[in-house]
């Protein structure tokens, strides 16, 4: 499960990476090395009226549009690729509201023989940002305020990643972005595939400093000892 990630890029850099048109307004957000549940984070969506790609800040932890009490909703941060199309929580968003989540890297935990959990940091070896498959929803609070949220789709890990965890985020190639965003016709289920073996993503042990709320600077991010994880990025 992906419950913590980081993104250190500015809005303009993401706009170039995801090929946004020049006249699309960009949100303001600061780099963060510790994005956790309920935190605001940038998400790439297709505007339902104009069809343009938009970069917007949503809250991590999906609240479905049919929720009657948003304050008491479960807010899952992950959606399993093998059940997302039929789950009551996610199927509406999967059908109509898919998005991309820009990420520089993410964290997983591995249980150690002494019972403690060791944090591991994952990132693309070429230093490029990753685009995770996501789902988004909007729901209106009783006072009229709109709440927009998202979740990250997870899949079966590659053989190498399975050493650390039994799930990993579903990272999409640039060629697959139009289908996932609904810009091209096709079946998005074809993208819900397990991560391939022999991939090119690096991982390494990371400091426990950021495991507690507080530190959010670059020193909290320290992937090393790269291993192959995601070939198709």
Topology:
Blueprint: E1 5-7, H1 11-17, E2 32-35, E3 40-46, E4 53-60, E5 78-80, H2 91-96, E6 98-103, E7 105-111, E8 117-124, E9 130-140, E10 146-155, E11 168-169, H3 177-181, E12 201-205
Folded structure, characterized:
The chain is mainly beta and 233 residues long. The chain has one domain (5-108, 127-196): hypothetical protein yedk fold, CATH 3.90.1680. Helix content is 8%, strand content 32%. The chain contains 3 helices and 12 strands; from the N terminus they run E-H-E-E-E-E-H-E-E-E-E-E-E-H-E. Strands 3, 4, 5, 6, 9, 10 and 11 form a 7-stranded mixed β-sheet that branches. It is globular.
Summarize the structure in short.
The protein is mainly beta. It contains three helices and twelve strands, in the order βαββββαββββββαβ.
What labels describe this entry?
233 residues, mainly beta, hypothetical protein yedk fold, 7-stranded mixed sheet, 5-stranded antiparallel sheet, 8% helix, disordered C terminus
**Share of β-strand residues:** 25-35%
Identify the CATH homologous superfamily: SOS response associated peptidase-like
Mean pLDDT: 84
Main beta-sheet annotation: 7 strands, mixed
CATH class: Alpha Beta
Secondary-structure element string = EHEEEEHEEEEEEHE
What percentage of residues falls in helices of 4 or more residues? under 10%
CATH architecture annotation name: Alpha-Beta Complex
Instruction: Quickly count the helices.
Output: 3
Q: Give Rg in angstroms.
A: 17 Å
What class, by secondary structure content? mainly beta
The dominant shape is: globular
The overall strand count is 12
Tell me the span between the first and last alpha carbons.
20 Å
Low-confidence stretches: 223-233
Compute the number of structural domains: 1
């Amino acid at each position: 499960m992906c419950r913590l990630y980081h993104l250190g890029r500015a809005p303009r850099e993401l706009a170039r990476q995801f090929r946004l048109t020049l006249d699309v307004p960009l949100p303001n957000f600061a780099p963060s090395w510790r994005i956790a549940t309920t935190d605001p984070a940038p998400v790439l969506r297709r505007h339902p009226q104009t069809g343009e790609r938009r970069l917007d800040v949503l809250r991590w932890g999906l609240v479905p549009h049919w929720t009657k009490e948003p304050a008491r909703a479960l807010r899952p941060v992950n959606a399993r690729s093998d059940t997302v199309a039929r789950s009551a929580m996610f199927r509406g968003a999967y059908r109509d509201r898919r998005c991309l989540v820009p990420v520089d890297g993410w964290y997983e935990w591995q249980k150690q023989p002494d019972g403690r959990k060791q944090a591991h940091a994952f990132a693309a070896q070429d230093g490029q940002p990753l685009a995770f498959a996501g789902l988004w929803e909007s729901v209106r609070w009783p006072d009229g305020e709109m709440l927009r949220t998202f979740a990250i789709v997870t899949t079966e890990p590659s053989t190498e990643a399975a050493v650390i965890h039994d799930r990993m985020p579903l990272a999409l190639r640039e060629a697959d972005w139009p289908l996932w965003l609904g810009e091209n016709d096709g079946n998005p289920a074809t993208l819900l595939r397990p991560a391939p073996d022999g991939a090119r993503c690096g991982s390494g042990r990371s400091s426990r400093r950021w495991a507690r709320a507080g530190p959010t600077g670059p020193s909290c991010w320290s992937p090393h000892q790269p291993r192959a994880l995601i070939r198709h990025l």
